[in-house]
Design a protein that fits this description.
heterodimer, A: Rna Polymerase Sigma Factor, Chain: A, 2 domains, 10 helices, B: 154 residues, alpha+beta, seven-stranded antiparallel sheet, 7 strands, globular
Chain lengths: 169, 154
């Protein structure tokens, strides 16, 4: 028996691909918390819409998935893309929008994540989620978001100071 | 790393989940309605497989639950035309997903600011596949929802 926490999802995806709709509903129950965890902090108030749209893309495109082993990476990429799209669609003004991102472990980030997130653009929120929730390194996160690595790196380099400045303003 | 428990997360209610499955199954339609009633009252009727279910679902005359294991259910359904179906799936408050070789039945209910949003999907299954025969499906679902609403408002 494998201890891989991804194994149940991969097995369900294989069964769903064979046309078993009960496996589809089990896969939906299995993937929903994962997708909601990504879409929530990126899309904020539009999180339920983003989660629904991301899962619709995932389930409609299941057949195009070449390798079920790649399920989670693919689902993550779809969830981030849909969350950014829905957040932009429902975009509200971000008057105090930050140019840079808080560093990992910043005490103010821990104090009120939601308030910090609301000051960021959807793309910046996505970087933060990929780095701090998904544990990706910055290069992988920038690739997934189609951002030049240099751009992301320089933003992150200046992050701490400008984040603190915005907070103390 | 920040404690992820503090990050905001999104909630996907059961009607939204049903929309996902309906969108993923070719031929499937979904019908929704909001009723000014509490969710538990609505589900007491929708989830009553051996009783009310057969009175609002299309072509369903009788359903007998063969086994239950937590949320997992196996049931024998008989249509008005005498056909039988061995349904397997999940039934819990707010959610029902059942399939046989020839049938798919999906139901959901979720709290709404105006009461409870209910949704139905499903129909005749292309045998063994994640696909629904599209002819008349939307009309049947609409009729079922109307029967259900009439029963609940009575």
């Amino acid at each position: 028996m494998s201890d891989d926490p991804h194994e149940p999802g991969i097995a369900l995806a294989r069964a769903a691909l064979r046309g078993d709709t009960l496996a589809m509903q089990d896969l939906l129950a299995h993937l929903t918390p994962y997708v909601a965890r990504i879409c929530g902090p990126i899309a904020l108030d539009s999180g339920p819409d983003a989660t629904q749209e991301a899962l619709i893309v995932v389930f409609r495109s299941l057949r195009s998935m070449r390798d079920p082993q790649a399920l989670y990476g693919w689902v993550r990429a779809v969830a981030v893309r849909e969350a950014v799209r829905i957040a932009r669609r429902d975009g509200r003004a971000h008057p105090a929008e930050l140019a840079d991102l808080p560093a990992p472990g910043d005490p103010q980030l821990a104090a009120d994540i939601r308030d910090v997130l609301a000051r960021l653009s959807p793309e910046h929120r996505a970087v933060l989620v990929l780095r701090d929730v998904e544990g990706l390194d910055e290069q992988t996160a920038s690739r997934l978001l189609n951002l030049p690595a240099g751009t992301l790196k320089s933003r992150l380099h200046r992050a701490r100071a400008s984040f603190r400045k915005a907070w103390s303003a | 790393m920040t404690d992820e428990q503090q990050w905001p997360t999104a909630d996907l209610d059961d009607v939204r989940r049903l929309r996902v499955l309906a969108a993923a199954i070719p031929g499937a339609r979904i019908t929704e309605r909001v009723l000014p009633l509490p969710a538990d009252e609505v589900w007491a009727v929708m989830g009553d497989l051996e009783g009310e279910f057969g009175r609002f679902q299309p072509d369903m005359r009788h359903v007998r639950v063969l086994s239950r294991d937590g949320e997992r259910v196996v049931a024998l359904a008989r249509s008005r035309y005498g056909m039988r179906a061995r349904l397997e799936g999940v039934v819990r408050p707010g959610w029902c997903w059942l399939q046989s070789r020839f049938l798919i039945i999906g139901m959901a209910a979720a709290p709404d600011p105006d009461g409870t949003r209910i949704a139905l999907t499903g129909g005749l299954r292309v045998p063994g596949r994640a696909m629904i025969v599209p002819f008349g499906t939307a009309r049947e679902l609409d009729h079922a929802l109307t029967r259900l609403e009439t029963r609940l408002r009575a």
